[in-house]
Automatic annotation (TrEMBL):
Organism: Sphingobacterium corticibacterium
Record-listed E.C. numbers: 3.2.1.40
One example GO MF annotation: alpha-L-rhamnosidase activity
Domain Alpha-L-rhamnosidase six-hairpin glycosidase: 454-799
Cited Pfam families: Bac_rhamnosid, Bac_rhamnosid6H, Bac_rhamnosid_C, Bac_rhamnosid_N, Ig_Rha78A_N
Biological-process GO terms, alphabetical: carbohydrate metabolic process
Catalytic activity: Hydrolysis of terminal non-reducing alpha-L-rhamnose residues in alpha-L-rhamnosides
Domain Alpha-L-rhamnosidase C-terminal: 801-874
Domain Alpha-L-rhamnosidase concanavalin-like: 350-449
Signal peptide residues on this chain, from the entry's feature table: 1-19
Name this protein carries in UniProt: alpha-L-rhamnosidase
Length: 909
């Protein structure tokens, strides 16, 4: 479902039903509650649900009030729009009175449509966050030093614990907690954790911005006396030490700032702060916590009741005032990570005193363990994605990551434990030191990723295609870690820009990830250097600024995806200046006198070796820079920027971008076109880019298309030969060429190199390499997303026929590809307007297509038929059907326009 988030796209949405003009449902969500929105002009959105066809909003009326009582009386004392003539039901900017920090805001909406007027929606609310730096007012606390509980030489730091007891003299009407805990935190009141988030807050470059989380703690502060507690883990703040510490940013020791704003029932207010009256300790059970290496927990050191009233903290020391991180304080609008699913082991085996757990699925998170034994017994859990031939863990591909958790028993009673400040990428877990006999019921896998709903579903008559979709889902979810990491298992886990330009596009068909990617675009913007350079990873935890076109292309390409899929123009407005600065930087620094962009760092990264044996034992960490790629990308991005300039109101820039593009197109063909019909070295990737980006001259398209087909069918024997760059464009290029059959062949191959080959060799996610079962383990993740390319985009847009034409799917293009061997495709996608569904089945005699279009949206659909007279909808001919407009009949397709609603078409192709 569409989320109700303010910073990026939407704050709230309501759902209207028209069986009788009334509101059916209204939802407003942000981290379970719409609180802490530190935006002065958030956007409001709503959805209309109705079984009627062709429902179009004609106007809306929004009321925003300072109290639920005023809203119930239809008094919008903060904002009353009156009746606004508009079909816009998403991203309506709040335009009322200035909002104050920590204020509660209540709103509702009614809509007017061509089919009638709705009743007022049920009331919704949001709570304003802390809008200004001075709202925080007090200082940070922590310990900016080592203790004897730390291992400075190895870089291991024990968790920090802070506590404070408070007394409230009045009855609380409202209490809101604002928490910043760096690197990671858990917040407690009276011994109970607040919220179900894990590994919070989201990762940032803390010198640029830090995220705070907001909690309604009114219920928790219902009495007079309470204890507050915060545990701090390291996360990326106290940086993971590596063999190359000079490349890794380190921000210092863990620290925190917290305040609780209280309104009493008599109307008076009070704010509680973290300060040096709090007390802290480091000699607790979490002896070390490290994202790569794991967590060591000594239950004998548990501080029983430390976050509860009455705990004896005389041995604790006063918290110390410490330096702030330096970055801007921002409410975290994208959701935190959460344990999203529990996964039970499918088997447990025992050998040489050790147990081996198999969870049957590669995923990321950790293991929750139940154990009973003698005090001091040490249980060790080691994680891996696969096994060696002898049944032991294969861990060579983890590089320097130890991926090990250790639990030391306190003894006697049954103990249940799971780590707090680490995660692993794994399928298998080796358990050693476990007392007694272990059973599968003693362990549970905890699947952790950013809390977001699955909004897309896809199935077909081809089992392999279905399995690829499932593998993609698991791989994508596994790598959502508040930033889109490349892999969850080895000592890397960085948000590489090169992995995501097209993958993010496909991911959006599966997950409600819009706010996730808006947050990441901000990470990229804040990592940009003053001269315009953009890094290879963002946040720039690694100091990699290699300067190339293909990797940073993720910045404008993801902005484009967000705009097209959500209709959010603000994402373009926010990032247009930075994107333009980067484009100017690359042209000034790397364009030669022949009009070629000479700088490319990686080439077609991880292209497959010619045979599976040719790559056996060899590292894929090799760069093949190629000016064909960098120049082609620059041309493509110039066209994107020209489109963006329209939406940000800069026509002068548009003319400049188009002029640059026209000149580069000429120079590109002059320098790289070969008379035999290809470009550059005549590789598949070079030719795909020239074709898809529109660089090839019109009279040479047939020749280039023939060359692309020749490479695939003859030279590659029906297989691809693309790396991370070429794979982003291969499926859509082939379909645009009229060769969806060849794209389908690539998708359903089971021999090397192919996605099917991965599945044939046990993959339950997507490998980093096409030859992942034979390559050198130095760079050989078994859970990556970069080789998905445009497979998901093609599956939803080309096979299912669900594609946005404008304004976040308000106009939809539905043109499914019919391919021999594929008899059925069923897919759905929950857009910002509501659910879009496409379910088609074809036989030798009939094509049947069930379609659903959400209210206030419309679609152009392409039916496989010679003419409209051979088509029926709901057993009615199209002629005289007022719900359907025939637009054209050409190329074996009848193009018709439909409004919202459900339809069933039948044709005779």
């Amino acid at each position: 479902m569409m989320k109700t988030i303010g910073l990026l796209v939407w704050l709230c949405y309501s759902t209207m039903a028209f069986a009788q003009p009334k509101v059916d449902v209204l939802r407003c969500e942000l981290l379970h509650n719409p609180i802490g929105i530190d935006i002065s002009n958030p956007r409001l959105s709503w959805q209309i649900q109705t079984a009627e066809r062709n429902v179009v909003q004609t106007a809306y009326h929004i009321l925003v009030a300072s109290s639920p009582e005023k809203l119930a009386q239809h008094k919008g004392d903060l904002w009353d729009t009156g009746q606004v003539i508009s079909d816009n039901s998403i991203l309506v900017f709040y335009g009322g009175k200035a909002l104050k920090s920590d204020a509660e805001v209540f709103w509702k909406v009614k809509v007017y449509t061509n089919k009638g007027e709705s009743d007022w929606s049920a009331p919704a609310r949001w709570q304003v966050g802390l809008l200004y730096y001075k709202d925080w007012d007090k200082r940070w606390i922590g310990f900016d030093r080592y203790f004897d509980t730390d291992d400075q030489q190895s870089g291991y730091l024990s968790a920090r614990y802070f506590r404070k007891e408070i007394s409230l003299s009045k009855k609380v009407a409202k209490a809101t907690a604002y928490v910043i805990g760096l690197g990671l935190y858990e917040f407690y009141i009276d011994g109970k954790k607040i919220g179900d988030q894990v590994l919070a807050p989201g990762l940032t470059d803390y010198t640029q911005n830090v995220k705070y989380n907001t909690f309604d703690v009114t219920e928790q502060l219902s009495g007079n006396n309470h204890a507050l507690g915060v545990t701090l883990g390291n996360g990326r703040y106290y940086a993971v030490r590596q063999e190359k510490p000079y490349k890794v940013k380190d921000f210092g020791f863990p620290k925190m700032q917290l305040q609780i704003r209280i309104t009493y029932t008599d109307g008076s207010k009070q704010t509680l702060y973290s300060d040096n009256t709090w007390k802290g300790a480091t000699d607790g059970p979490i002896r070390s916590n490290n994202e790569y290496d794991g967590e060591v927990y000594d239950a004998r050191k548990e501080l029983q009741g430390w976050a509860s009233l009455g705990y004896d903290d005389t041995a604790w020391i006063p918290a110390e005032y410490v330096q702030e991180p330096g970055g801007k304080y921002e409410s975290q609008i994208n959701r935190n990570m959460k344990v999203m699913q529990d996964i039970k082991p499918v088997s447990i085996t025992s050998k040489d005193g050790k147990y081996m757990l198999d969870f049957g699925q590669n995923f990321s998170g950790w293991v929750k363990m139940r154990v009973q034994g003698a005090r001091g017994t040490e249980v060790t859990l080691r994680f891996a994605e696969s096994l060696n031939d002898d049944g032991t863990l294969f861990r060579d591909n983890l590089r320097a990551a130890k991926a090990t958790d250790t639990y030391i028993l306190k003894g006697n009673d049954e103990e249940v434990w799971e780590p707090r400040f680490t995660y692993h990428g794994f399928r298998y877990v080796e358990v050693s030191g476990y007392p007694g006999e272990a059973d599968v019921d003693d362990f549970m896998g905890r699947f952790v990723y950013d809390e977001m709903e699955t909004v897309g579903e896809f199935s077909s008559s081809n089992p392999l295609l279905n399995q690829l979709h499932e593998n993609a889902w698991w791989g994508i979810a596994s790598n959502y870690k508040s930033i889109p990491v490349d892999c969850p298992q080895r000592n890397e886990r960085q948000a590489w820009l090169g992995d995501r330009p097209t993958s993010a596009y496909g991911e959006n068909f599966l997950f409600d990830n819009a706010n996730f990617y808006v947050k990441w675009l901000e990470d990229i913007r804040l990592s940009q250097k003053n001269d315009g350079a953009i890094p290879d990873v963002a946040p720039a935890f690694w100091r990699y600024y290699s300067d190339n076109m293909t990797w940073p292309s993720a910045y404008p390409m993801i902005a484009d995806m967000l705009f097209r899929h959500t209709g959010d123009v603000r994402v373009l407005q926010d990032h247009y200046p930075s994107m333009k600065k980067w484009m100017d930087y690359m042209r000034a620094r790397y364009m030669d006198d022949k009009g070629i962009i000479t700088k490319d760092s990686y080439g077609d990264w991880c292209a497959p070796p010619v045979t599976i044996e040719a790559g056996r034992g060899k590292s894929a960490d090799k760069k093949y820079p190629n000016p064909v790629l960098s120049t082609a990308y620059y041309y493509y991005l110039l066209q994107l920027m020209a489109d963006f300039s329209i939406h940000v109101g800069n026509e002068l820039d548009r003319a400049d971008f188009l002029q640059q593009a026209a000149q580069i197109r000429k120079d590109f063909n002059l320098q790289f076109y070969n008379q035999n019909g290809g470009y550059g070295n005549n590789t598949l990737t070079e030719n795909l880019l020239a074709m898809y980006f529109g660089l090839v001259e019109e009279n040479e398209k047939v020749k280039l298309a023939d060359r692309i087909v020749e490479i695939i069918e003859k030279e590659n024997k029906g297989h691809l030969s693309t790396g991370v760059v070429g794979t982003q464009w291969i499926m859509r290029t082939l379909s645009d060429m009229g060769r969806s059959d060849l794209a389908f062949k690539l998708t359903t191959n089971r021999t090397y190199p192919s996605w099917g080959y991965m599945i044939e060799h046990g993959a339950t996610t997507i490998w980093e390499l096409w030859n992942g079962n034979t390559a050198h383990p130095q760079m050989n993740s078994e859970n990556h997303v970069m080789m998905l390319g445009d497979l998901l985009v093609w599956s939803y847009e080309n096979l299912a026929g669900i594609k946005s034409k404008e304004n976040g799917f308000q106009t939809i293009i539905m043109k499914p590809e019919l391919i021999d061997g594929l008899d059925h495709v069923e897919a759905s996608y929950h857009s910002v307007y509501g659910a879009i569904k496409s379910n088609w089945t074809t036989s030798k005699t009939t094509f049947t297509w069930d379609i659903a279009v959400p209210a206030n949206a419309k679609a152009e659909i392409y039916l496989p038929a010679k003419n409209s007279s051979s088509i029926t909808e709901g057993n009615r001919n199209l002629e005289g059907n007022s719900d359907i407009q025939v637009l054209s009949e050409e190329g074996g397709r009848v193009r018709v326009a439909i409004g919202s609603g459900s339809y069933q078409f039948k044709t005779k192709p």
